[in-house]
Design the sequence.
């Protein structure tokens, strides 16, 4: 069993897509272990996206992720990280396959509706950034 950190980004929450995204992960067979609606502070956003600090889109990404409430979640299942990434689709929605969250619900790179951890280390780090141990079931 593996755990991954998934977030519905501000545009997904604003567009009323929380149920749609959650439903897709549920139907895929992953188990929900934690979930909360929250605002992401600038400090948390910069830590979360630390690997992208030197990228030209970093400031824009932090501005976007702090622009409105997000839904932060932990999902569990066999190879949950890989399964969730496949369910989400490619980073650029233009390249994301139909049937994926991004391929069905997004068109723009930054506004790609969901975040998902990309490996075991980032999953553990991101879960720890967003949730305390008492919030995980
Ligand atoms: N504006 C812009 N945003 C980007 C670009 N590349 C990535 N992003 C955004 O930054 C997030 C993090 O990038 P990355 O970790 O590479 O992709 P992810 O793991 O699939 O979310 C992506 O989900 C996009 O929202 C880019 O070239 N331009
Ligand atoms: Mg990433």
Sequence:
């Amino acid at each position: 069993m593996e755990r991954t950190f998934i977030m519905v980004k501000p545009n997904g929450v604003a567009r009323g897509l929380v149920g749609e995204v959650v439903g897709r992960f549920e139907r895929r067979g992953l188990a929900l272990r934690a979930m909360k609606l929250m605002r992401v502070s600038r400090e948390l956003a910069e830590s979360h996206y630390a690997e992208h600090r030197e990228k030209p889109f970093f400031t824009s990404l932090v501005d976007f992720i702090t622009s409105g409430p997000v839904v932060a979640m932990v999902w569990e299942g066999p190879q949950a990280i890989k399964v969730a990434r496949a369910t989400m689709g490619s980073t650029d929605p233009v390249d994301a396959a139909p049937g994926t969250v991004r391929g069905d619900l997004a068109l723009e790179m930054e506004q790609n509706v969901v975040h998902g951890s990309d490996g075991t280390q980032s999953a553990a780090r991101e879960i720890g950034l967003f949730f305390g141990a008492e919030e995980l079931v």
User: Anything to note?
Assistant: The two ends are 14 Å apart (CA to CA). The mean pLDDT is 98. The helical segments are 10-14, 18-28, 42-48, 58-65, 80-88, 101-105, 120-130.
